[in-house]
User: Fold this.
Amino acid sequence: MAAQITREWTGIQTFPPATLNKLLELLGKLKQEDVNTLTILVMGKGGVGKSSTVNSIIGEKVVAVSAFQSEGPRPVMVSRSRAGFTLNIIDTPGLVEGGYVNDQVLDLIKRFLLNRTIDVLLYVDRLDAYRVDNLDRQVVRAISDSFGKEIWRRGVVVLTHAQLSPPDGLSYEGFFSRRSEALLKVVRLGARIKKQDVQASSIPVVLVENTGRCNRNENDEKIIPNGIAWIPNLVETITSVVSNGSKGILIDKKLIEGPNPNERGKILIPFILAFQYFFVVKRIQRWIKDDIARESKSAWE
Assistant:
């Protein structure tokens, strides 16, 4: 695999001054905690806005996005540096094809991530998807089985297409609360997260609007209907996850391929040999001695 090219993060200068100052403050906070490199993995189903979210965070069109073409067939890592800090964002293909989790795509992603440490998982879905189903649960389970359920301790749920009018007369916050709780329930079930673990570390949910429909505040920052400037809010949430005391997920060969079945039995070998010696070999030896003792002497003796 060719070495990843890290470019100067010039796109950060395209943000409005208020957003730029907040981002620089958050990056400075990470550097104070000796975090000089941040690697973010973006995953989810196809067509939910993963690539657009990557472009929004970087402030450049670094990943191709088209409503009329399928997503790229391979993962892509974008690396940007500023003042000694390096940001890596890995965009991935959608995990679903034909109504099922595409195991080939998942395996391709795992191979791409080999020997990398994932600091944050952005699990992307749409706010305007009004229901969750078994397919959502399958996607979450596939991610959990591939990288371990501990990856959700470093997880952020991102809901795109946040510039909407809620149905059935619901308030915006009420609709957001219902949608996020329904999705978090699926995450907990799919990842097999126990109740006590849920209470110990909740998964944050962030709203995102990548389209030109996004409104702006008096500081020219992109805001969602509840008035929150979403880009600094997303980066602040990512910073909080990095600082929550959990560890990044190292994607090594053992994690990808699972435990070696030949290794699992090695610990039992001494016990098996001891059993064979005392209960089989010793017993056979005793039988032979008994047979010799009972054997009548030859006539010439």
Observations:
- The longest helix spans residues 269-294.
- The chain has a mean pLDDT of 86.
- The two ends are 82 Å apart (CA to CA).
